[in-house]
Specification:
single chain; alpha/beta; Lyase, Ornithine Decarboxylase, Chain A, domain 1; 2 domains; eight-stranded parallel beta barrel; 21 strands; binds ligand LLP
């Protein structure tokens, strides 16, 4: 069923008669020990993906700033920090997570997001982050005020909106002028001039992020070209721009039946970005991949509770729901779903794989052909390492899943399962 090479997914069968494992670790054993739903990630896989960037961008000074929103588990942040990663954050909470995982990583943090508040800005100023990606003139004003109040210099990049179309789901496309993100590139020079006049503001970079789950390298090249043009102008205007933040967004392939070569993907991406950078000198490239590093390293394990028929339809009801993994409901996203046990025969069923949440939108797959499963069986929902747990909620008063990080033969619980008393902890009677 899952026949990809190790480099695409860490969840494999030793042979057709074996159960699915994560590297050397039995998923059935993890589910027995920690219960379900359970997120399982491979540390080796995450590190492998991270190192692909180092390899493909070896000729260009760069920092890979992992987009924390993709999966903000402290265990994963710590793993990446130890490898030298920087971090792209979008809230004070994410900054606190990075500091908790590794205080010394503060100098490798870039702060993006359209709605930064004064307390979040203050925390970032005090922590000494690398770069604020400023998304509006109002934010620049607030940052100028806070930085002079705290007497802390703020290195900034304007996040420019390059008006480049990235072919992806409309909810995760960000680089068109109709989107709320960034400052129109045509207006950027004026805003930089204004920024340079502020005592504690230091224009140091230009940033761009055009969207997520982008499959072709071409839009990255186009957006980078526009940014490079702006950097040349700004340098002529006398601003010492040192950083080009090219954002994140590199896509993966969620369909196991379609070919996917992670190594080639990063190489093509690097080639497109570096071609656009061309002869621009003394530039440090910042990259903000999220999904590409962690999505395929993770699976959500769920137990089949019931098989139910309604008229012509069959439903496989699992103990995981849209509150645990919302991507199929929110973006009609495809996730491969595979039984963990060794296939028992060739019988198949076609069913909607759904959760227990009281919404018809609570599904992981519709009309999906699966090897025959029965109540009690364990299934793995693949490619769930990015925007899975980080988008999970307590809807229907469902405690969020536990998380296990597998490294070599070891499997460490990096987040215990929430309890209902955790959920009540903030409420008053
Ligand atoms: N940098 C910025 C400024 C971003 O807004 C994002 C993602 C990233 C980097 C990382 O993008 P990535 O490399 O992961 O594509 N929940 C959606 C994805 C939302 C992406 C939001 N921004 C999903 O599950 O597909």
């Amino acid at each position: 069923m899952v026949s990809d090479s190790f480099s695409v997914r860490p969840f494999q069968r030793a042979d057709a008669k074996s159960a699915l494992t994560c590297g050397d670790v039995s998923l059935e054993a993890l589910a027995k020990k920690h219960g379900t739903p359970l997120y399982v990630y491979s540390a080796d896989h995450i590190l492998g993906r991270f190192r692909l960037f180092g390899k493909s961008f070896a000729n260009q000074r760069h920092v890979v700033c992992y987009a924390v929103k993709a999966n903000s588990a402290l265990g994963i942040l710590k793993l990446l920090a130890a490898e030298g990663a920087g971090f792209d954050i979008v809230s004070g909470g994410e900054l606190e997570r990075v500091l908790m995982a590794d205080k010394s990583a503060a100098g490798r943090v870039v702060f993006s997001g359209v709605g930064k508040t004064a307390p979040e800005i203050d925390l970032a100023l005090r922590s000494g982050i690398l770069l604020f990606n400023v998304e509006s003139e109002g934010e620049l004003e607030l940052l100028a005020e806070r930085s002079s109040k705290l007497r802390k210099r703020a290195r900034i990049a304007l996040r420019v909106n390059p008006d480049v179309f990235a072919e992806t789901h409309p909810y995760i496309s960000t680089g068109l002028s109709e989107h709320k993100f960034g400052i129109a590139i045509q207006r950027a020079r004026t805003v930089y001039k204004h920024a340079a006049a502020q005592k504690f503001i230091e224009p140091a970079g230009v940033s761009v992020h055009i969207g997520s789950q982008i499959q072709s390298a071409e839009p990255f090249g186009a957006a980078t070209s526009r940014v490079v043009g702006l950097i040349r102008q700004l340098r002529k205007d006398g601003l010492p721009i040192q950083y080009l933040d090219a954002g994140g967004g590199l896509g993966i392939e969620y369909h196991a039946s379609k070919p996917f070569h992670p190594e080639k993907k990063v190489e093509q991406y690097a080639a497109a970005v570096e071609k656009s950078i061309g002869q621009l000198e003394d530039i440090t490239l910042l990259l903000e991949p999220g999904r590409f590093l962690v999505a395929q390293a993770g699976a959500l394990l769920a137990r089949v509770l019931y098989i139910k028929k309604n008229g012509k339809k069959t439903f496989v009801i699992t103990d995981a729901g849209m509150n645990d993994l919302i991507r199929p409901s929110l973006y009609q996203a495809h996730h491969e779903i595979v039984p963990v046990a060794a296939p028992k025969g060739s019988r198949k069923l076609t069913a909607d794989i759904v959760g227990p949440v009281c919404e018809s939108g609570d599904f992981f797959a519709r009309d999906r052909e699966l090897p025959m499963v029965a109540p009690g069986d364990l299934v793995a929902i693949l490619d769930a390492g990015a925007y899975g747990q980080s988008l999970a909620s307590n809807y229907n008063t469902r405690p969020r899943p536990a998380e296990v990080l597998v490294q070599g033969k070891k499997a460490n619980l990096i987040r215990r399962r929430e309890t209902t008393s955790d959920l009540f902890a903030t409420e008053m009677l």
